[in-house]
Amino acid sequence: MDSLGYVRSWGLDKFHYDYLQPSEEFRQQASRAINLICDFLKTRCFQDAPRCEIKVLKVVKGGSLGKGTSMKNGSDADLVLFLNIFKSYTEQEKERKMVIKEIERQLNECQELLNLEVFFEKSKWPNPR
Q: Which residue ranges does the record assign to the Polymerase nucleotidyl transferase domain (predicted)?
């Protein structure tokens, strides 16, 4: 790999493409997986939850894969769910743990159902956001 310090300004795009940007195949596979998960969360998540009135109103994609800024040696996707049950921050804070547990259960089911090879990383925080 060429040292970035020796790359001329006109060669930056090529350097980025050759050494930093993941392949088009990887980006397409990741995009399909993220879209499948988003569709699953919007249409099937919380269907058989203890509180069946919970609905996913919107899913916002973030992280490098969600924003299209992924790199060869490290990419992630963050999905933010907006639910119909939260009317205030206090309410969200109180119910968050239960909701996250249910989402985790549903995502594990989604992974098996859709035959996806994805890694779900748990938050290191005791009361995740």
A: 55-112
Tell me the C-alpha distance between 30 and 32, whole Å.
Answer: 5
**pTM of the entire structure?**
0.75
> Model confidence over 53-78: pLDDT tens digits?
888 999 999 888 888 888 888 888 88
Residue 32 lies in a domain: yes
Question: What is the C-alpha separation between 44 and 36, in angstroms, rounded?
Answer: 11
Q: Which amino acid, one-letter code, is at 60? A: V
The answer to whether residue 1 is domain-embedded is no
DSSP codes, 16-38: IIIIISPPHHHHHHHHHHHHHHH
The residue count for the chain: 129
Q: How far is CA 31 from CA 35, 47, 64, in A?
A: 6, 25, 11
Q: Which domain holds residue 36?
A: 12-68+75-114
Q: CB burial class (10 A; 0-12, 13-18, 19+) of residue 36?
A: middle
